Structure formats: structure tokens, C-alpha cells
């Protein structure tokens, strides 16, 4: 009986915490927040290896491949052109494009 009460208490606390955290004020993305988020993108052609490695899906090897490609072929100006980098296909290019700007 004691174990049942403890389990019910913990379950109640978990549900309450989830609802409280989910109902944060300002959780909606307004135009100003969207603009701020967009401005935080990494400029792909000016990024360092460390900045590129911080992008999900890009490790040391792909970061170096991107830098080498930029050095050899010039700036990358689009998501499609990013697929020309060795080891980066359409799916990864789409994922990376969320975090970079091609300026």
C-alpha cells in the first residue's frame, strides 16, 4: 500500500511538472523571435571548422570537406551546391541549411 501511494504521488508530480513546463508564456514564435533566430545562422562561407562541427550532422571530416570545397571551388551559394561537397547528400544538405546562411 505504501509503495502504491508513493507511485501515485510521483506520477502526479510528473504530470504536473510536464504541464507546467509545457505552458511557458511566450512559447509561440512571433515575427521578431523568428527574425532573431534567422540572424543567428552561421555564415557558411566564413565559418571556422569549430563552428561547422557544431552543426548537427557535421563532424570533423565533413567540416574539413566543406572548408576544402570552399577553398578549391569558391563560396557555396545554395543548398543544392552544398551537395557537391564530398560526403554531403540531399538529406544532410537540407539539415545543414537550417543552421547556415549562404551569404
TrEMBL record:
It comes from Arsukibacterium ikkense. The keyword Signal applies. This is Competence protein ComEA. Residues 50-69, 80-99 form the Helix-hairpin-helix DNA-binding motif class domain. SMART domains: HhH1 (SM00278). Keywords: Signal. SUPFAM superfamilies: RuvA domain 2-like. Residues 1-22 form the signal peptide. It comes from the Bacteria. The keyword Ribonucleoprotein does not apply.
Amino acid at each position: 500500500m505504501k509503495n502504491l501511494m508513493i507511485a501515485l504521488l510521483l506520477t502526479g508530480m510528473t504530470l504536473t511538472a510536464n504541464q507546467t513546463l509545457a505552458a511557458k508564456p511566450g512559447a509561440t514564435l512571433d515575427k521578431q523571435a523568428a527574425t532573431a533566430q534567422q540572424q543567428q545562422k552561421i555564415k557558411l562561407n566564413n565559418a571556422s571548422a569549430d563552428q561547422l562541427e557544431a552543426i548537427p550532422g557535421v563532424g570533423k571530416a565533413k567540416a574539413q570537406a566543406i572548408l576544402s570545397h570552399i577553398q578549391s571551388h569558391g563560396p557555396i551559394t545554395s543548398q543544392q551546391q552544398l551537395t557537391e561537397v564530398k560526403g554531403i547528400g540531399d538529406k544532410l544538405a537540407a539539415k545543414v541549411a537550417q543552421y547556415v546562411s549562404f551569404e
